[in-house]
Amino acid sequence: MDIALEQVGYTYAAGTPFQKRALHDVNVRIPSGSYTAIIGHTGSGKSTLLQHLNGLLKPTAGRVRIGDTEVTKETKGKQLKPVRRKVGIVFQFPEHQLFEETVLKDVMFGPLNFGVQEEEAKARALRWINRLGLPEGTAEKSPFDLSGGQMRRVAIAGVLAMEPDVLVLDEPTAGLDPAGRKEIMDLFYELHEQRDMTTILVTHSMEDAARYADHMIVMHDGTDVLQGPPGEVFGDAERLAGWRLGVPRTVSFQRLYEEGAGLPHGPAALTEEQLASYLAAHLGEGGSAS
Amino acid sequence: MERILSLQDIRFSYTPDDPDSRFAVDGVSFDMQAGEWIAVVGHNGSGKSTLARLIIGLLFPQEGTVGLFGDPLTEDNLWEKRSQMGMVFQNPDNQFVGATVQDDVAFALENNGIPFGEMTLRVQNALEQVKMDTFLDHEPHHLSGGQKQRVAIAGALALRPRLLILDEATSMLDPQGREEVIRVILELREKTGLSVISITHDLEEALLADRVVIMNGGRKFAEGTPQDVFLKGEALTALGLDLPFAMRLSALLKEQGIPTEPGTMTERKLVEQLWTLHSNR
């Protein structure tokens, strides 16, 4: 399911003294099946953009195409229900939205709300609770008796149980420890591959964008300033710095090495493994690169 | 050197009446000298945040003593001891009370009955120390995450604490915000000799500390200079902890037949070795 924004603008509280333009002239395309990372400094408009991806916000200018559905400022809320079933959003700190008596009920809430039958909703909930690596017996517990990391997983299971075609993740690992972070990110990647989903990741972590994404959108001052594969986006550190963004640690280390060794800039190393191979190619016997 | 903190065999359980409950902090001891920077590292649930709450007297241990500035911490001297400590928490949005940056920094001073003239001076001074003095009249919630945490640090500094405790204060910030906060703390230590305990997941930050304490399952798993502690390499990864970037890259280079000196932990040291290898090639 392709998602495209055409000349999208969004102004909060339009026509009041508090009016604030959050997006203007945004033209982006998120190809079906892609793993797209959206990066941008705080206040660049990425959170506002994200809320357009399933019609939580309707653009005040331009149009958003989500599969066959077109959303403009005239679109009625009712028409958006099918879109919301297909596009699941995991918000920042999603555990703050848990509310049911038991984990099972909480995870079933989404599917039931979209008309899935009780039996099926229950089966799905149990399947996703298990898939998220939560311990046996969690389903019957109150979500509020769990640890922070477990609550996060329950909230994510709740979105996945709707079995969306497009999964939007807003800083899904904020506040988790490094092991928890890697587990969750690897799980999303696995699901992305196995279920042929479109995954959209909004992140401050250039490392995650570089490692997992195949397509990137850079936001600055309320509009898109660059789109392309991570190798291209992270290839030019100076340009990114102009938008108050950095490059992954692998790339900054690579550039430091190249500059000190008097070498031209090579293609950006997106993972630590790529960086090690690149360095080994330079330093190994024969030093193929010079 | 003055010993400002001394933990002796501390045990704490959140449910002490339940015989099956596990201790969140289980027999931890360590000392801290004035002017030191200690990083406490461990995965979620390792007991590190409980440790911070025990030090600042938000919790009291069931066993063992917390010694602060020469005395054991008790309910009687709690307020006097606490007035010498500042704490900054994880979420920059949960710790503001003032409508402007300067009101916010002044809040605790007002609570402590500091006279107005002195208060204005201290607020100005604290905000200069964190490089936020041009933001006096800004609204806190319009600042970036890094700026908010710097204001929170200024709020703690205005009380002139002898010990500053950072409880994952950089974990919710973007890379730039994290760098801003760490730079401010490094400078403060250099200029004022402030003692800092930083509870953190950020190993690059831990590398800057004088000493690292690694927590696991409520116990102290390791303690020493960053150099000593991170040399344990695989024992740490077995706990689910990460290693600093330069160590991870060194291990990958070794697999590719490029040896580096054992114990290379900083990017600077690693790149220097690689430059040498390059020029000797």
Automatic annotation (TrEMBL), chain A:
Its EC number is 7.-.-.-. GO terms for molecular function: ATP binding; ATP hydrolysis activity; ATPase-coupled transmembrane transporter activity; cobalt ion transmembrane transporter activity. PROSITE patterns: ABC_TRANSPORTER_1, ABC_TRANSPORTER_2. Gene3D superfamilies: P-loop containing nucleotide triphosphate hydrolases. Its main location: membrane. It is an enzyme of class 7 (translocase). Keywords: ATP-binding, Cell membrane, Membrane, Nucleotide-binding, Translocase, Transport. It is found in: Cell membrane. InterPro entries: AAA+_ATPase, ABC_transporter-like_ATP-bd, ABC_transporter-like_CS, ABC_transpr_CbiO/EcfA_su, ECF_ABC_transporter_ATP-bd, EcfA2, P-loop_NTPase. Residues 3-246 form the ABC transporter domain. It holds the Pfam family ABC_tran. It is a peripheral membrane protein. GO terms for cellular component: ATP-binding cassette (ABC) transporter complex. ATP-binding (A) component of a common energy-coupling factor (ECF) ABC-transporter complex. Belongs to the ABC transporter superfamily. Energy-coupling factor EcfA family. Forms a stable energy-coupling factor (ECF) transporter complex composed of 2 membrane-embedded substrate-binding proteins (S component), 2 ATP-binding proteins (A component) and 2 transmembrane proteins (T component). This is Energy-coupling factor transporter ATP-binding protein EcfA2. It comes from Bhargavaea beijingensis.
Automatic annotation (TrEMBL), chain B:
It holds the Pfam family ABC_tran. Its main location: membrane. Keywords: ATP-binding, Cell membrane, Membrane, Nucleotide-binding, Translocase, Transport. It comes from the Bacteria. One of its GO terms (molecular function) is ATP hydrolysis activity. It is found in: Cell membrane. PROSITE patterns: ABC_TRANSPORTER_1, ABC_TRANSPORTER_2. It is a peripheral membrane protein. Belongs to the ABC transporter superfamily. NCBIfam families: ECF_ATPase_1, PRK13635.1, PRK13648.1. PANTHER family: ENERGY-COUPLING FACTOR TRANSPORTER ATP-BINDING PROTEIN ECFA1 (PTHR43553:SF24), HEAVY METAL TRANSPORTER (PTHR43553). This is Energy-coupling factor ABC transporter ATP-binding protein. It comes from Bhargavaea beijingensis.
